[in-house]
């Protein structure tokens, strides 16, 4: 019997489209403040490619503050395009996330439906604590979670098993009593399955089809989580 449902945050509950808008707003602010001679859209493309590369290298490795990784990426681009990154870059980052972050349409009703069933609803996410708390508060969903496990707390990035083991301990359950919903087959499905947590891949458009084999369930709408949990 399933007793807990854990969620990834970015790209699973937090819409990817809103994340792109947020990052563009950050780049616009940086370009304006630094008086940089580059199109914010072009800067965004490079920033996303660079941070993606950095995070891929850190998968499963010891935690390093994301605010530092993001600042390093921004500084590299500042150097490349000859501008000085504003000193309050992290504050801009936080502020824009609070202002422009949006959940997927069906996220809230899904979380509430699971809570109503008496399930432990948790989050397991590669994140800094301050960023996550500020973001969840702005979205008005912080109180909905029975537990939150971040990389900062676990000391590792997904798919390191420590992330999942800590979450299980908080819910006081075994792996087979939980499901994990995420949008990254390599980090989320592989990570969860190491500790016997059933994995559910949220793949809205089917673009991750080639990696579906890493996951036990594939969904395109978060509400399907409720049905899966009922049937297990
Ligand atoms: Ca994600």
Description:
This protein has helices at 16-34, 40-58, 66-81, 89-100, 107-116, 129-139, 151-154, 161-171, 185-194, 224-231; strands at residues 4-7, 120-125, 147-150, 178-182, 198-202, 217-219. The chain has 232 residues and is an alpha/beta fold. Helix 1 (16-34) crosses helix 2 (40-58) and helix 2 crosses helix 3. It is elongated, with a radius of gyration of 18 Å. It has ten helices and six strands. Residues 8, 10-12, 182-184 line the site of calcium ion (CA).
- Say how many strands there are: 6
Name of the CATH first level of the largest domain: Alpha Beta
Rg (C-alpha, Å): 18 Å
Tertiary shape:
elongated
Number of helices: 10
What is the SS-derived class?
alpha/beta
Task: Tell me what portion of residues adopts beta-strand conformation.
Answer: 5-15%
Low-confidence runs:
none
H/E element string? Answer: EHHHHHEHEHHEHEEH
Bound molecules: calcium ion
Main sheet attributes: strand count, strand direction, barrel closure: 6 strands, parallel
Based on the structure, what is the oligomeric state of the protein chains? single chain
The chain-level mean pLDDT equals 97
Q: CATH architecture of the largest domain, please?
A: 3-Layer(aba) Sandwich
CATH fold topology of the largest domain: Rossmann fold
Helix content: 40-55%
Distance separating the two termini: 6 Å
Strand arrangement within the widest β-sheet reads 3-2-1-4-5-6
Relevant CATH superfamily of the largest domain: HAD superfamily/HAD-like
């Amino acid at each position: 019997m399933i007793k807990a449902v854990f969620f990834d945050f970015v790209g699973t509950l937090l819409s990817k489209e809103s994340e792109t808008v947020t990052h563009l707003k950050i780049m616009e602010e940086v370009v304006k403040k630094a008086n940089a001679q580059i199109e914010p859209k072009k800067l965004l493309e490079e920033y996303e490619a660079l941070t993606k590369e950095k995070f891929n290298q850190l998968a499963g490795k010891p935690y390093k503050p994301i605010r530092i990784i993001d600042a390093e990426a921004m500084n590299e681009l500042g150097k490349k395009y000859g501008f000085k990154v504003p000193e309050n870059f992290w504050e801009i980052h936080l502020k824009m996330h609070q202002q422009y972050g949006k959940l997927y349409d069906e996220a809230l009703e899904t979380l509430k439906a699971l809570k109503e069933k008496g399930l432990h609803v948790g989050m397991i996410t590669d994140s800094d604590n301050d960023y996550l708390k500020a973001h969840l508060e702005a979205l008005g969903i912080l109180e909905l979670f029975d537990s939150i496990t971040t990389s900062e707390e676990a000391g590792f990035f997904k798919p390191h098993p420590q992330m999942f083991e800590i979450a299980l301990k908080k819910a006081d359950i075994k792996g087979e009593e939980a499901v994990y919903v995420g949008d990254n087959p390599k980090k989320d499905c592989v990570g969860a399955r190491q500790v016997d947590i059933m994995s559910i891949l949220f793949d809205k458009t089917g673009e991750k089809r080639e990696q579906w084999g890493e996951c036990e369930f594939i969904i395109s709408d978060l509400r399907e989580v409720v049905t899966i949990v009922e049937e297990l």
